[in-house]
C-alpha cells in the first residue's frame, strides 16, 4: 500500500507533464487529421456454393460438410484470391483505364517523372500492359522499360502493396459469401476496383478449376484403362495355366480324391476284418478233420480244383475291376458277371463233393462244403485288399500332384483379386471425378459494387485517441520509472528493506549550504519549525531506546548524509529540556563540528591517560578533535577510555558522539565499543546495494545495541512514527 502511495505521489509531482504532453500531442495532430481526404467504400459479394447442400446428391463428398472442411475450403479460396497474378491483373486493368480515358481515376499529371507522357507513349504502355494482362504475367524488373512502367504503377498507387491496403477480402461470418471491400478517395474508383477484381478472380478460378478437373478425369480414365488391362492379363494367365495342366476345378477335384480315399480306407479296414475272421473259421474247420481225411481231401481237391482255380482267378479280376473307381456308379453288367461266377464256383465245389461220396470222406461232406465256401470268400476278400491298397496309392499320387497346381492357381487368383480391387477403386474415383465436375461449385458475384457516399470522418476520434494514447504512454513511462526505482524515500520502505527499526524522519532543510552556527538563531525559527517537530519525535524515540543509558553514537553509511546536523540538533534539543549534554566530534576524517563550534577542549587531550589531562565540568558542551589519520584507540587505550567515559557519565545526562561514516567501518567500530546505543542517519533518495548491504548485515548482528535508522532529507514527511 505504501508503494502505491509513492506512485501517486510521483504522479502528483509530474502532474503538469501528464497534462501538457497530451495537449501538445492533440495540437500537433489536429490540423493534419482534420484535412484528411474523404474516404469512399464499395463492397461486392461472391457466392461460393461451398455450403450448398443441394449439391450433396451428385457430390458424394459434399453431404454433411464439416466446419473444418469448410474453413479449409474458404482458406484455400482466400489464398488464391491473394495470388500476385490476380493483383497484377487488377493493376493492369486500372492503369489501362487511366491511360486510355479522359476521365482517369488518378491522373499522371501530378507525377513529375511521368507527366510528360504523350499519346504515343501511352499507347505503347497500354499495349504492354494489355499483353501482360492477357498472359497474366508480372512486370519484368530486369527490363528497363518495364521497370520504368512498374514505377508508374507504384506512383499511381496501383502496385500490389497499395492495392492490398485499399481492397480487403474476407468471408462474411459463417455464411457462403465472400466480401470484397475497397476504400479509396473516389467512389467510382472503389466500385470499379471491386467489380474488376471480382471478375478477374472468378475468371481465373473457373479456368483453373475446369482445367484441373479435366486433367483429373483424363488421368483417371487412362489409369482405369490400364487397370482393366491388368485384370484381363491376370485372368488370361490363369486360364492358360488351367488348360495347360488339365485343371477344371481344383477344389472339387481335391474333395473328390479325399472322399475316394476315405471310402477306400473304410473298405480296406472292413476287408482286413473279413480276411481275419474267414481265416480263423477255415482254420477251425481244418482242425476238426483227421489228418487222413485232410490229406485225401487235399489230394482230391488238387485233381478236381483245376477248373475251380481258374474260376477263382477270373473272379479276382472282376473284383479288381469293380474297385478300380470307388466313386463310380454301380455297373449292372459287372455285378451280374460276379454273381454268375460265384454260383459257378459253388457248383464246381458241389461237383467235388459228389466225387468224394465214395471216398473216405463220407460223412464229412457238410464240413468240406462249408470249408470250400469259406475258402472262396476268403480268397475274394484277400485279393480285394491288394486292389484297394493299390487304388489308395494311386489316389495319394494324384492328390500330391494337385498341391503345386493349387499353389500356382492361388497365386494367379490373388493377382486377379488385387488387380480387380485396384480397378474398382479407380473406377469409383473416376465416377466421383465425373460427378464432381458436373456438380462443381461455381463462383458468382451476387452483389455488384456501386459508387456510394463518403464515409463519416473519424478525425475527431483520431485526435482524441492521440491524446488518450499519449496520456497512457506517459502513465506507463512513469510507472516503469517508479517500478524500476529502488531508492528509499519513506520510513516504512526503509524498515521493510533493511528489516531494522526506523526511529523517525527529518525533512530536508532549504538551501544547499547550511550554517550550523546560525541554524538555531531567531530568524531561522520559522524555517526550522517543521524540522523541530520531527526532531522532538526522534528525541523521544531515542530516549525510549536509551532507557537510562547515556552514550549515543550517531553514524551513517557514507559521508554527507546529515549525521553532523543530527548530532548538533539532538544536542540542542536535549539542552532545551535542561539536560546536561556533551557533544563529541569523533569524526577525525571530517571534523565539521570542531570547525563550526571551535570548542575549548579536544578529545585527544581529555582521553589521554596523563595527570595533566583537563577535567571537564557541566559547563563544557562540545569536545572537538584535531583531525588527521588517527583512530580512537590510537589516542588512548581501551581501559583508560572506559574509565574516562564512566567519569563523564557522572557529569552529563547524555553523551552524543558523531562517529566516522561506515565507509570507514573500523574507525567507527572503535567508538561503538564505548557506546550504549547506535543510531544511523540514512539520506532519502538513496538505495541499498553492494557495500551498503554489508553495513545493514552488521547492524542486524548488533542486535538491540542498534536502536534504528533516522531518515534524513525527506522531501515529503508524514506524521513520524516508529516502524519495522
UniProtKB/TrEMBL annotation:
Entry's Gene Ontology molecular function annotations: protein tyrosine kinase activity
Segments forming domain AAA: 550-691
Domain of life of the native organism: Bacteria
Transmembrane segments: 14-33, 461-484
Alphabetical keyword list: Coiled coil, Membrane, Transmembrane, Transmembrane helix
Any one of the GO CC terms: plasma membrane
The keyword Transcription is annotated on this UniProt entry: no
Segments forming a coiled coil: 217-267
Xref: Pfam families: AAA_31
InterPro entries (UniProt xref): AAA_dom, Bact_polysacc_biosynth/exp, P-loop_NTPase
UniProt keyword Membrane present: yes
Protein name in UniProt: AAA family ATPase
Organism per entry: Mucilaginibacter myungsuensis
Taxonomic lineage of the native organism: Bacteria, Pseudomonadati, Bacteroidota, Sphingobacteriia, Sphingobacteriales
Amino acid at each position: 500500500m505504501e508503494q502505491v502511495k509513492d506512485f501517486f505521489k510521483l504522479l502528483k509531482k509530474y502532474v503538469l507533464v501528464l497534462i501538457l504532453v497530451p495537449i501538445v500531442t492533440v495540437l500537433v495532430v489536429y490540423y493534419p487529421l482534420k484535412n484528411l481526404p474523404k474516404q469512399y467504400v464499395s463492397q461486392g459479394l461472391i457466392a461460393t456454393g461451398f455450403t450448398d447442400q443441394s449439391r450433396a446428391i451428385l457430390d458424394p463428398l459434399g453431404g454433411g460438410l464439416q466446419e473444418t472442411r469448410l474453413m479449409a475450403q474458404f482458406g484455400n479460396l482466400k489464398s488464391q484470391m491473394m495470388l500476385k497474378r490476380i493483383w497484377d491483373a487488377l493493376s493492369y486493368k486500372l492503369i489501362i483505364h487511366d491511360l486510355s480515358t479522359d476521365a482517369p481515376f488518378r491522373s499522371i499529371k501530378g507525377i513529375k517523372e511521368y507527366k510528360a507522357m504523350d499519346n504515343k507513349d501511352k499507347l505503347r504502355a497500354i499495349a504492354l500492359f494489355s499483353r501482360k494482362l492477357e498472359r497474366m504475367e508480372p512486370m519484368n524488373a530486369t527490363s528497363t522499360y518495364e521497370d520504368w512502367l512498374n514505377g508508374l504503377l507504384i506512383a499511381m498507387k496501383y502496385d500490389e502493396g497499395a492495392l492490398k491496403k485499399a481492397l480487403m477480402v474476407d468471408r462474411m461470418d459463417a455464411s457462403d459469401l465472400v466480401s470484397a471491400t475497397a476504400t479509396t478517395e473516389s467512389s467510382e474508383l472503389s466500385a470499379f476496383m471491386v467489380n474488376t477484381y471480382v471478375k478477374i478472380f472468378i475468371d481465373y478460378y473457373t479456368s483453373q478449376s475446369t482445367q484441373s478437373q479435366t486433367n483429373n478425369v483424363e488421368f483417371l480414365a487412362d489409369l482405369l484403362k490400364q487397370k482393366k488391362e491388368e485384370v484381363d492379363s491376370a485372368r488370361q494367365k490363369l486360364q492358360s495355366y488351367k488348360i495347360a495342366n488339365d485343371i477344371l476345378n481344383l477344389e472339387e477335384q481335391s474333395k473328390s480324391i479325399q472322399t475316394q480315399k476315405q471310402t477306400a480306407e473304410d473298405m480296406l479296414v472292413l476287408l482286413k476284418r473279413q480276411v481275419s475272421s474267414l481265416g480263423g473259421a477255415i482254420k477251425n474247420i481244418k482242425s476238426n478233420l483227421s489228418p487222413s481225411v485232410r490229406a485225401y481231401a487235399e489230394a482230391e481237391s488238387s485233381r478236381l480244383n483245376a477248373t475251380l482255380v481258374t474260376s477263382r482267378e477270373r473272379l479276382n479280376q472282376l473284383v479288381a475291376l469293380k474297385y478300380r473307381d470307388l466313386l463310380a456308379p454301380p455297373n449292372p453288367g459287372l455285378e451280374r458277371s460276379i454273381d454268375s461266377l460265384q454260383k459257378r464256383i459253388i457248383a464246381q465245389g458241389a461237383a467235388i463233393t459228389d466225387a468224394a461220396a465214395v471216398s473216405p470222406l463220407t460223412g464229412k461232406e457238410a464240413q468240406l462244403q462249408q470249408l470250400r465256401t469259406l475258402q472262396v470268400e476268403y480268397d475274394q476278400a484277400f485279393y480285394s485288399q491288394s486292389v484297394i491298397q493299390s487304388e489308395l496309392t494311386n489316389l495319394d499320387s494324384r492328390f500330391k500332384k494337385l498341391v503345386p497346381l493349387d499353389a500356382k492357381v492361388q497365386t494367379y487368383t490373388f493377382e486377379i483379386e488385387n488387380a480387380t480391387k485396384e480397378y474398382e477403386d479407380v473406377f469409383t474415383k473416376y465416377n466421383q471425378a465425373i460427378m464432381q465436375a458436373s456438380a462443381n461449385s461455381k463462383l458468382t458475384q451476387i452483389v455488384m459494387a456501386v459508387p456510394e457516399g463518403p464515409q463519416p470522418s473519424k478525425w475527431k476520434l483520431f485526435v482524441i485517441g492521440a491524446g488518450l494514447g499519449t496520456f497512457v504512454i506517459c502513465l506507463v513511462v512513469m510507472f516503469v520509472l517508479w517500478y524500476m526505482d529502488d531508492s528509499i524515500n519513506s520510513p516504512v520502505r526503509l524498515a521493510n528493506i533493511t528489516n531494522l527499526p526506523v526511529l523517525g524522519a527529518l525533512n530536508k532543510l532549504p538551501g544547499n549550504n547550511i550554517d550550523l552556527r546560525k541554524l538555531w538563531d531567531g530568524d531561522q525559527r520559522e524555517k526550522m519549525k517543521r524540522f523541530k517537530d520531527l526532531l522532538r519525535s526522534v528525541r523521544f524515540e531515542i530516549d525510549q531506546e536509551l532507557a537510562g543509558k547515556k552514550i549515543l553514537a550517531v553514524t551513517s553509511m557514507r559521508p554527507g548524509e546529515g549525521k553532523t546536523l543530527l548530532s548538533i540538533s539532538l544536542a540542542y534539543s536535549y539542552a532545551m529540556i535542561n539536560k546536561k549534554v556533551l557533544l563529541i566530534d569523533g569524526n577525525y576524517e571530517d571534523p565539521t563540528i570542531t570547525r563550526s563550534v571551535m570548542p575549548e577542549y579536544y578529545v585527544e587531550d581529555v582521553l589521554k591517560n596523563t595527570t595533566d589531562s583537563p577535567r571537564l565540568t557541566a559547563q563544557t558542551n562540545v569536545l572537538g578533535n584535531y583531525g588527521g589519520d588517527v583512530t580512537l584507540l590510537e589516542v588512548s587505550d581501551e581501559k583508560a577510555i572506559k574509565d574516562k567515559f564512566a567519569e563523564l557519565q557522572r557529569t552529563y545526562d547524555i553523551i552524543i558522539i558523531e562517529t566516522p561514516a561506515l565507509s570507514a567501518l573500523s574507525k567507527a567500530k572503535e567508538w561503538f565499543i564505548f557506546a550504549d546505543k547506535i543510531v544511523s542517519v540514512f539520506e532519502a533518495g538513496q538505495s541499498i546495494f553492494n557495500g551498503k548491504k554489508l553495513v545493514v548485515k552488521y547492524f542486524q548482528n548488533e542486535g538491540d545495541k542498534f536502536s534504528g535508522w533516522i531518515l534524513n532529507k525527506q522531501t515529503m514527511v508524514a506524521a513520524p512514527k516508529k516502524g519495522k
